[in-house]
Amino acid sequence: MIEDVFTKADERAAGAADWLRRLRDGLIEGKDLSLELTAAGLGGAMWREMKENARLSSVGETGAMRIMLREVRSALAAAGGGRAAQGWELHVVAHSAGSIYAAHAMQLLLDSGVPLASLHLMAPAITVELFNATLRPLIEAGKCPVPDTYVLSDQGERDDTVGPYGKSLLYLVSNAFEARRATPILGMEKFIRPVPEGPKVEPALRALLEPTLVVAGATPPAGLGPSRSNSHGGFDNDADTLNSILRRILGGAPARPFTTRDLQY
């Protein structure tokens, strides 16, 4: 990266300010790459363990979601069977790695007897591969709603930080914690729709998700409110994001929306 800065004639001709900016950016990229390589071993092992725990929660008789399913079915039966669920709705909101948990649990949630009315993913850390294997078939079969997906812009991901790492947590997951570098992560804008110098995007995935994709700081799609989160971890503390989700759940503006003060706890 540094060699490119010193050898590309077009960049040298851009002027001292641009040259210094590109040198700085190249050094930051070099630092981040070094951190990715350093963190990949231990961080990758911890990440795999967390993902496996999320999966195990929905398999086997002792998984927490399996226990939940049995208890919900039992409660509905005691209350009069299917009639007890009339008027009830289930709304799933998942942030970051919560999307992985929700993906594995989705079939159990659909089997609970309570209709699933909406799905909201905030900066989902699930890989596109796992999304395609778990949630996408249910969505395309009409069993699960298309998720409202809240993400940072790609520039926002690059401006975020994780300690000394100069990008967002999802960049670190994609470049270091997953099995291969640049693993497509659903919560990264560049893997849902094209961005400058970004990877090729699957047209069908874009067509599925873009109509309900909310990019922080940008005008939202019709029917959705904006998000003003400025970090990966900020979505569940952003009043605009939460009010957008609440509006979708209620089918209209809430009588009492979230305020910034509500989230100072």
In short:
The protein has helices at 2-7, 9-12, 16-56, 64-78, 98-110, 128-140, 154-159, 169-177, 203-209, 239-250, and strands at 90-95, 116-122, 148-151, 213-215. With 265 residues, the chain is an alpha/beta fold. The protein has one domain.
How would you portray this structure in words?
This is Alpha/beta hydrolase. A four-stranded parallel beta sheet has the order 1-2-3-4, with helices on both faces. The chain contains ten helices and four strands; from the N terminus they run H-H-H-H-E-H-E-H-E-H-H-H-E-H. Residues 1-13 have low confidence and may be disordered. The chain has one domain (41-263). It is globular, with a radius of gyration of 21 Å. The longest helix is centred in the first third of the chain and has 41 residues, at 16-56. Strand 1 (90-95), helix 5 and strand 2 (116-122) form a beta-alpha-beta unit. Helices cover 48% and strands 8% of the residues. With 265 residues, it is of the alpha/beta class. Helix 3 packs across helix 8 (169-177) and helix 5 (98-110) runs parallel beside helix 6.
